[in-house]
Amino acid sequence: MSSVSGSFEDVAIEAAHAAGRILRRRFTTRAGLTIETKSRHDYVTEVDREAEAAVVDVLRRRTPGHAILAEEGSLGAAEAAHRWIVDPLDGTTNFIHGVPTFAVSIGLEDQRGLLAGVVHDPCREETFHATRGQGARLNGSPIACTSLDQLDAALVATGFPFREMSGLPAYLAAFEAFVRATSGIRRAGSASLDLAYTACGRYDGFFEVGLFPWDLAGGALLVTEAGGIVTTVQGGSDVLEQGSIVAAGSRLHAAMLALTKGTF
Q1: How far is CA 135 from the centre of its chain?
Q2: CB atoms within 10 A of CB 129
Q3: Burial readout 20-51 (b: 16 or more C-beta within 10 A, e: otherwise)
Q4: For residue 164, which of 105, 204, 210, 121 has the smallest C-alpha distance?
Q5: What tens digit of pLDDT does each residue of 51-81 get?
Q6: Rounded to whole angstroms, how far apart are CA atoms 228 and 166?
Q7: pLDDT for residue 175 is more than 90
Q8: Quick one: pLDDT at residue 4?
Q9: What's the CATH fold of domain 151-261?
């Protein structure tokens, strides 16, 4: 790692672990949790805010000139050269229901795009991390996307629409296409972990629409640095702006993209 960009990755890991300790502790004492509804089927708890505060504290202390875009609030000047993109609890609904599938997601972008990314799973003590141009790792060990090139053998992850139902018909068409074309579909409820699992080859690919930048920023770089390809469902490069994604190993991405282009 270079001394500059590598240090940003280290900062992201430190911040993610700070939030992860809070999530792990609060997950065992969920009784009496205060739950607010931000919009239909979209929830926030005091744990989200407590974890976000822990992340922001590390980022402001270690990188005071950087802007921060976080799910529960933003800080810093819009013209800053670097911007952190933070989801302190990706998988809030799982957390509320006691399902141990959630993560802290932190990405850093500069004028060239994503520079560093971390997805931390506090329940399994797995930290997926990457720096642009330097590969992706899980707890320090290199990881790689699948080399599979046959869609009918692929295990693919997705996420169902839950906020806005207007796109449901197109999604159902895509879902049917993937059910027919692949060996299996999984919907775990945390886009950042879906991307992390794609980066290390547990999933062969992942697609979803209707996402926010903080859902994607930590995991998208993991996939590209693990040798995969990341685009929108129509093949564009503006994944964070469009909020849609197709992520897969380099030999499988085109086949997945053909299905999403034909349905969304």
Answers
A1: 17
A2: 27
A3: bebbeebbeeeeeeeeeeeeeeeebbebbbbb
A4: 210
A5: 999 999 999 999 999 999 997 777 766 679 9
A6: 30
A7: yes
A8: 45
A9: D-Maltodextrin-Binding Protein; domain 2 (3.40.190)
Tell me the one-letter amino acid at 193.
L
Residues 148, 249: contact at Cβ < 8 Å? yes
264, 209 Cβ separation under 8 angstroms: yes
Domain 3-142 CATH (choose: 3.30.540.10, 3.90.320.10, 1.20.140.10, 1.20.120.1080): 3.30.540.10
C-alpha dihedral sign at 217, 197, 131, 255: negative
| Distance, CA of 143 to CA of 130 (rounded, Å) | 10
Each residue of 219-254: pLDDT tens digit?
999 999 999 999 999 999 999 999 999 999 999 999
